[in-house]
Structures are given as structure tokens and as C-alpha cells.
Records
---
Amino acid sequence: QVQLVESGGGLVQPGGSLRLSCAASGSIVRISAMGWYRQVPGKQREFVAQITSGHTTAYADSVKGRFTIDRDNAKDTVYLQMDSLKPEDTAVYYCYAITVDTRTTWGQGTQVTVSS
């Protein structure tokens, strides 16, 4: 089983940057991909970015060119660098991990608020 702990959310002005972290523990060797979704109250959870164990990345069109996902295998941590933030990026960001048996584990979520 995999456990995920997120950190790095907060309040930032439009145009600013934040870096989210997601630390994995437990059955790490079974993780095939990790990534982030986000959710605004009253709306469905939205895909943001993903990185596989082979470092293949994927991004939502809405964040391409502004967000960068990366992973540090030595620390079993995935990062989401968010630049040029917009008010519409405001959401709760959830980290997830997919294991080789196709199970998905979710983190507890971290709030990101972009506002002047």
C-alpha cells in the first residue's frame, strides 16, 4: 500500500509561483505513475499533470507552458512547479499514485489560492 503526503500550497498573487510536493511511502516500488488533479467546489476533479516511472510527462492544456512536473526518485517525491499562476488555478490540488496493479491512491489535498 502507498501513502501520500502533500505540501506547498498557499496564497499567491496572480503571476506568482508555487511549488507543490508529494512524498510517497509504503510500497513505492510498485508505483508506475504519479501526478496531480485539482478540484474547485461544485466541480469535477480535473487532471493537471502526470509523470511516469520512466519520466514521461503529460499536462492539461490549461497548464502547459506554466506548470512543470518532476520527480526525485531518491526522495520518493514528486513536485509540481507552478509559474505564471492565474486566479482560475485556484483549487484544492490532490496528488495521486498509480501502482502496477492499476490501483490509485490519493493524497489529502492542499489548497492553492491565486488572488490579489
---
Amino acid sequence: QVQLVESGGGLVQAGGSLRLSCTASGLTFNQYTIAWFRQAPGKEREFVASHVHKDGSSYYADSVKGRFTISRDIAKNTVHLQMNNLTVEDAAVYYCTALSDYDTYWGQGTQVTVSS
């Protein structure tokens, strides 16, 4: 059974930092691209960042470039999203997803709240 478990969300003041983690089980971790999406109340789910398993490249939404960093710890089957200089616009439920050519899996999400 495949599981993606997000952690690290919480309440932070604007300008602060959080590190989210996504730990995978039940799949061959290094055969999946791992991405983070987020969804704020009343808004559509949007792409945040991704780490491609094939070549190790990373991609970011324009809104988070220079502030967020995605990284992969293969030994721990975990992808981290380091989020710095958070703003109220970053507040959302953050979801990680594992994608391959054949299937896609989603975690349950972790809440990020940013106070002004």
C-alpha cells in the first residue's frame, strides 16, 4: 500500500520559515518525481515545486522562487520543502504527490498558517 505522509506544517509569523516533509512508503522512491501543491480556501490547487527523479532537477512556481527549496533524501524516502520568508499568501494546505509514467499518489496534506 502506497502512503505519502506530510509533516511540518503549522503556524508561523510572516517572514518566518517552515520545513515541510513528505515521507513515502510502498513505492520505489527514486522512480518517482515528487511535487508539492497547495490549496488555499476558495482557490484551486496550485503547483509549488517539484523534484524530478530522472535527472535531479527542481522546478518552482514563480511565486515561491528564491524563497522555497525542494530537496530529496533518498535514504529516508523523504522530500523536504524548505520555505523561507513566508507571507500570508503562502497560507494553504500543502500536499505532496508522487508521479511516475504510470501512476500518481497524493498525501493527505499539512496545514500552513501564516499570521501577519
---
Amino acid sequence: VQLQASGGGLVQPGGSLRLSCAASRKISSIHTMGWYRQAPGKQRESVATITRARVTNYADSVKGRFTISIDNAVNTVSLQMNSLRPEDTAVYYCTVTYYSGGSTWGQGTLVTVSS
């Protein structure tokens, strides 16, 4: 399966962006979908994840600002990002984890928060 992420771009501090990620085909073996990010010079970190049962998990730095959602029918996960800060600048990667424990990563989409 391939993951196609979209929605990145340049936004001013305090602004909003919505990222979306669609799997190339419906995969019933997907357990969790989520977003990670990697800022320049930093390690990749988990931003938010959501299971097919819609159990969510957020990094402390984005709680209350970001919302992850999933559409199981079309294997799409979205990340609504509000009140963006310069420190949110990073390449955001979509990922899926299967019940078997394996995972697939998307190509990444750049989010730049700057005035």
C-alpha cells in the first residue's frame, strides 16, 4: 500500500492547516494511522495517532491544538492543526501500523510556520 499525504505549506503563527493522508487501497489489516514529524536537526517524533476504534494519542506539545481523525471506509487520516507555532515547522509523515506489527510510511509533507 502507498500513502499519499497532502495539505502542507506555509502559514503564519497562529494559523491553521489541515493535513490528509490516503492509503492507495482499503486495507482491513490497518490497526493505527498517524502522523510523525521531523524538524531540521531533530529526531522524528510522534505527533498524533488514531486507531480504527478511534482511540487517539497526542504529543504533549500539540494537545489542545491538533486534532486527528480517521475515515475507516476509505483509509484516510487527517490532522487539523490550529494555533500553529514556529516550533511546529517540520516535515510531517503519515504512517500506518498493521495488526501484524509492520508499518508503512508516506513521503512527507513540509509545514512551515513563519511570519
